[in-house]
Amino acid sequence: MRRVVLVGRVVPVGRVVPGGRVGRVLAAALIGVAALVGCGPPGNVVTELGATGGVPVEGGTATMALPPASTPNWIFPIGAPGYLASYNSAIQDLLFLRLYLPEKKGDALTLDSPRGLAEKPRYGDGNDTVTITLKKGYRWSDGRPVTTRDVKFWFDLIKANKEEWAGYSPKLMPDDVKEFEVLDNQTFRLRLDRAYNPTWFTANELQDFVALPVHAWNPRHENPRRAFARLMRHARQFSAFATDPLWKTVDGPWRIAKWTTSGQVELIPNTHYSGPDKPHLDRVVLKPFTTADSEFNVLRAGGVDYGYLPPSVMAQSAKFREMGYRIDPWEGWAITYIVLNYHHPTAGPLLRQTYLRQALQHLIDQKAISRVIWHGSAAPTLGPVPAGLLDADPYPYDPKRAKALLAGHGWAARDGVLRCVRAGRGAGACGAGIEEGQELRLSLLSQSGSTETSNTMQVLKSEFGKAGVALDVRQQPLNTVLGTTVPCKTGDPVCSAWQLGFFGTQGSWYFPPDPSGEQIFASNAPSNMGSWSDPRTDELIRATEYSDDPAALRAYGREVARRLPVLWTPNPAYQVSALRNDLRGVEQNPTLSLTPQDWYYVKKGGAGR
Hints:
This protein is 25% helix and 20% strand. It is built from 16 helices and 29 strands.
């Protein structure tokens, strides 16, 4: 089992699954070989296996496939609601350096990365101050030095515009910082509103900090509200990302060469980058695909250097090895779920009934879906933390129990669909806000592009239907789903646009290094898409923020798993990657960050260095 090692806490990475999920993936990959048409990787085909080593060749272009129906559409490193896809932040981190970046170190995940912009944070005064020093020598692409004023510019922007920042949770960043003190060009100090668990604060608060070029982005010294509004106008001009001078001042290893409205992004080296890991390649192409099947066709024809195998064709991986690819499952630090809109005018009263959520969860056969539909490349989600931190499934597949829960709360079948026959709030009644004769009918908006996701939704529709719950499923591209399933308040027009939402073909939520829940399940949290609000959940989350006792995280995980703020569904690997074997240096980080500056091609037959 991989582990995340952070200050004061050791956190398991990935999932602990009976039989070993990675083992099942690899076993499936070795069973059977189907005939393939295509020439495989063009150019040098290196037969020696290995993710590193070999005699490097400077230069070249690497093309990486983006997930199906996914289109990068946000470049500004301050996220906005509806633009939170992982590929957006992965690209941003290549242009604008964060202070702290999680990366694998052996079998661990550490925030002590050489790619980060800052030295290790120093906590003092009983953990209610933290002092941070930037590493020396970093410059913007126009030659100006990166200083603490660039970090303060980011902080001032989110502080003055926190309601528009998708990372904002009330009482957390920036509310938990009483004062940002610039000590000199390299060092600043944060005075906090109380003592925090240093593990949590570093992993989940400081990891948001990024330097932004104040000299280039705010040369007229506008106040933070005016500057933010201007920057957001530029950030919404999707078609101009590659040409807008604003985005050309970067301090990361890459800069934008091309960014099309269809979602293709091309990166070229920032020749002024002063970090330790300067790019080897001349260009990196991030290529979009409408479906996993279309990606597979291009992959087997040799048109992608770093792609993925859809789970349905895992048996063909041996043939890909013969063609000069290596197969590497990319496990994510993630959970997957169906989000529930508690403020929808008709579905909200239904979803607020605990018994109803329990019944729906009992109708989801996660083990069978993982095994049959995902061909072993998924495993059950058990709760709000990675499954390795939980010891039981509180709601295993049990259709009889589901039907009993519904019948015991006033639902009876009429023409194949359950209707409420005992309206009201009392014991044995349907619950507050549910009318006599109301159908138990729900609508689910799901992302398109994946055969496995489509088949999963059809299985849920069938299982729900057998219990008398009508489920209507419609599918849209991922960006549409993300832009629709946003937090809302009762009466907001957007609240009527969706009831249930699914955006988990590659996992619904990728945790920061410490998998606490302040971003997804705390009241008014930025990624609490369904607007779940529960005092006990909030209390348990706060305990993980203040205490470094591992028991606090376990207590949160067990209790919120039982409360069911969402419906847990199988958690797939981010992807089963297929990489040209002469493309080396690829690290598949469980937080989904990318480091193409470390990628390089090797000569055919070259010895290891």
